């Protein structure tokens, strides 16, 4: 283990490369379906298999999805797009090359704002976002000497989001990935599922002495299948590299693979062994030109982004950062909440309900917000009942809310009436209850009168019990104090 003092001498530097599988119905250059989970080698065609004489054709949707992501990340959009061949041999690549973008990616530069746990914000600079096709999948079954290949995935459109080396902590890397996942889901261009491989991340890591002018040699770490594992891999690499430098050893540029079981990495290949991909422009595809008109139509179809909703929730609704972050985690939840706020102006109470009873209910029953039976209008009515003092918030969440889920057509007020839950805020009906409590507890009343004012809580408890929780606490407390001090 390295001491904090030694670690503090060094600066971690990370650049991330994120692949996102686009949610197009068909492949990047062929009409085959991109559906997940089919029998191996059922979603293939002569184009996908790279038969001689076949011609690729660009998927228009894939171009639009890439542009959407570029617009969301403030990139410059390349108007004339040329595809290139990246040549290498691998069993899951039947053509012997991958069609990708080399020089002239579809989105250039750009930035992604992130928010960290301490409330601070940063902008992660992007180098580019380019379009390419996915390879097939090699499958190594336990105990089998052969490698099986499934080409269903081959040709699926991908965007690769490449950051500049300006991520400086593992927390920033995590926040960046979370933001990317949120963005692609809001844009509806990728399902963001890292476990199923629709979002994949390689981490380039280097270390240098703090204040150094030149970046250290980097290693590229692959095979992390969760954001958490990206963080583990980065932290492991930092320690390993600092350890090496402290021992006077030189770091070699190499590709390493992460082992989730041990939390460590091991070398796969060094840069020297790396292929020369002999990129050249794909001769079978003419350039894809994005006209002003096309760009405008993509721009005008952009949905509200999480950062816009975050801004609205914090600035317009006055919610704390915590609430706004929670509410914008998923697009559906954010939009549901936004609709709720059109029905009520009790924003903070509304947010508390989202983070409390609604979230618990959705989690416990594995229900998605779009299958939630209560609509925003009904919930707003319930919030109003609480605000008007007709029901207490605990009665509302424990008794009315479950009933409302079952019978969302019946108004919360009717439910409260039917279940006899309307709070007693009427002094004339509360008074006899309080008087009864005082009569039953003569001893305690005497103690109160001799100075034990802390007994108020005890009396209130009795009043609540006698009223079956229906006494309006504000009115009851006032009345109780009056009667006790009589
Ligand atoms: P390569 O030529 O090895 O592919 P690139 O310059 O294309 O390298 O960068 C690939 C990724 O590596 C980018 O995300 C970039 O930000 C990152 N990167 C480059 N240099 C470093 C470094 N010294 N430390 C950490 N990340 C780096
Ligand atoms: Mg590169």
UniProtKB/TrEMBL annotation:
Give the top-rank taxon of the lineage listed in the UniProt record for this protein: Bacteria
Q: Which reaction does it catalyse?
A: L-aspartyl-tRNA(Asn) + L-glutamine + ATP + H2O = L-asparaginyl-tRNA(Asn) + L-glutamate + ADP + phosphate + 2 H(+); L-glutamyl-tRNA(Gln) + L-glutamine + ATP + H2O = L-glutaminyl-tRNA(Gln) + L-glutamate + ADP + phosphate + H(+)
* Enzyme Commission (EC) number: 6.3.5.-
Q: What class of enzyme is it?
A: ligase
Is the Secreted keyword given for this protein? no
- Give one Pfam hit by family name: GatB_N
Do the record's keywords include Lyase?
no
Q: Which GO terms describe its biological process?
A: glutaminyl-tRNAGln biosynthesis via transamidation; translation
Q: Where is the Asn/Gln amidotransferase domain?
A: 335-484
Q: Which UniProt keywords apply?
A: ATP-binding, Ligase, Nucleotide-binding, Protein biosynthesis, Transferase
Question: Which terms in the Gene Ontology molecular function aspect does this entry carry?
Answer: asparaginyl-tRNA synthase (glutamine-hydrolyzing) activity; ATP binding; glutaminyl-tRNA synthase (glutamine-hydrolyzing) activity; transferase activity
Query: What job does this protein perform?
Result: Allows the formation of correctly charged Asn-tRNA(Asn) or Gln-tRNA(Gln) through the transamidation of misacylated Asp-tRNA(Asn) or Glu-tRNA(Gln) in organisms which lack either or both of asparaginyl-tRNA or glutaminyl-tRNA synthetases. The reaction takes place in the presence of glutamine and ATP through an activated phospho-Asp-tRNA(Asn) or phospho-Glu-tRNA(Gln).
- Family that this chain belongs to: Belongs to the GatB/GatE family. GatB subfamily.
Subunit structure of this chain's protein? Heterotrimer of A, B and C subunits.
Q: Which NCBIfam families match?
A: gatB, PRK05477.1-2, PRK05477.1-4
For this entry, the protein name equals Aspartyl/glutamyl-tRNA(Asn/Gln) amidotransferase subunit B
Source organism: Algoriphagus kandeliae
Which gene name belongs to this protein? Answer: gatB
């Amino acid at each position: 283990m390295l001491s904090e003092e030694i670690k503090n001498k060094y600066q971690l530097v990370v650049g991330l490369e994120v692949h996102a599988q686009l949610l197009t119905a068909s492949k990047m250059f062929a009409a085959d379906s991109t559906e997940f989970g089919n029998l191996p080698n059922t979603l293939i065609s002569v184009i996908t298999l790279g038969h001689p004489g076949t011609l690729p054709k660009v998927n228009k949707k894939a171009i639009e999805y890439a542009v959407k992501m570029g617009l969301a990340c403030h990139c410059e959009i390349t108007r004339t797009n040329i595809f290139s061949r990246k040549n290498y041999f691998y069993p899951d690549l039947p053509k012997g090359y991958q069609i990708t973008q080399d020089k002239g990616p579809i989105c250039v530069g750009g930035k992604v704002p992130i928010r960290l746990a301490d409330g601070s914000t940063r902008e992660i600079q992007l180098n580019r976002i380019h379009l390419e096709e996915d390879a097939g999948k090699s499958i190594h079954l336990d105990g089998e000497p052969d490698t099986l290949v499934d080409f269903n995935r081959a040709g699926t459109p991908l965007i690769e989001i490449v950051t500049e080396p300006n991520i400086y902590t593992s927390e920033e890397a995590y926040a960046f990935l979370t933001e990317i996942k949120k963005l692609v889901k809001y844009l509806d261009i990728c399902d963001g599922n890292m476990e199923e491989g629709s979002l994949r991340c390689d981490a380039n890591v280097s270390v240098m002495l703090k204040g150094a002018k030149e970046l250290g040699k980097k290693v590229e770490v692959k095979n992390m299948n969760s954001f958490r594992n990206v963080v583990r891999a980065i932290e492991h690499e930092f320690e390993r590299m600092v350890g090496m430098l402290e021992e006077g050893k030189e770091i070699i540029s190499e590709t390493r693979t992460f082992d989730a079981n041990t939390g460590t990495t091991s070398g796969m290949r060094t840069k020297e062994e790396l292929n020369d991909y002999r990129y050249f422009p794909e001769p079978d595809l003419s350039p894809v030109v994005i006209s002003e008109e096309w760009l405008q139509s993509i721009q005008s179809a952009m949905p509200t982004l999480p950062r816009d909703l975050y801004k609205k929730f914090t600035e317009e609704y006055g919610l704390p950062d915590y609430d706004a972050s929670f509410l914008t985690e998923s697009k559906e939840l954010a939009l549901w909440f936004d609709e709720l706020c059109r029905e009520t102006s009790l924003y903070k109470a509304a947010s508390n309900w989202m983070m409390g009873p609604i979230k618990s209910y959705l989690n416990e029953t594995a229900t998605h917000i779009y299958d939630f039976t209560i609509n925003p209008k009904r919930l707003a009515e319930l919030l109003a009942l609480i605000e008007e003092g007709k029901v207490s918030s605990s009665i509302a969440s424990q008794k009315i809310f479950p009933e409302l889920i079952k019978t969302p057509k019946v108004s919360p007020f009717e439910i409260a009436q039917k279940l006899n839950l309307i709070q007693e805020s009427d002094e004339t009906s509360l008074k006899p209850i309080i008087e009864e409590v005082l009569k039953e507890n003569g001893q305690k009343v005497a103690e109160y009168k001799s100075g034990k004012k802390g007994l108020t809580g005890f009396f209130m408890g009795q009043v609540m019990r006698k009223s079956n929780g229906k006494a309006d606490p504000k009115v009851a407390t006032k009345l109780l104090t009056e009667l006790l001090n009589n």
